[in-house]
Amino acid sequence: MTNAPLIRDATLEDVPSITDIYRDAVLNTVATLDTVPPTIESRTAWLQHHGARFPVLVATVDGRVAGWASLSEWNDRGAYAYTAESSVYVAASHRRKGIGAALLAAIEARARELNYHVVIARVVATNETSLELVRTAGYEDVGHIREVGYKFGKWLDMCVLQLTLPCTPDSSAGE
Description:
alpha+beta
């Protein structure tokens, strides 16, 4: 990669680029099982919902957003306070240039800072690029859900992978 990406927290000014990247994924890939293209309004609400505990990062190259990553709530029940789900999306023009790996490393670092114990990734079984990305980052396969999604005229299996991090639980969490 000629220009290393700058990774930073996403801002409201990044929403149009985040929306474009995600819209492309919805319409053209199985990187997401969403079937309804996002709008600026829906992605704005999504970003505002995330907050400090569930960060959204962007990677910029030459001042333009080339990809984004997020930690999202895995489950709202108290005992899951130390578990989050990671997502990484890269603009089509920037794929296979190391941006996804840089974003995944950055979101993992943030998960460590936020004292998460488990980070989950859900990846469609035919998405070899994403599976390679998360496995290389240390995620382990922990489940395979058959025919859980239907997109582009096909039933899709979902792989569930997890990264386990050191964590010091707060004595009141999950109680």
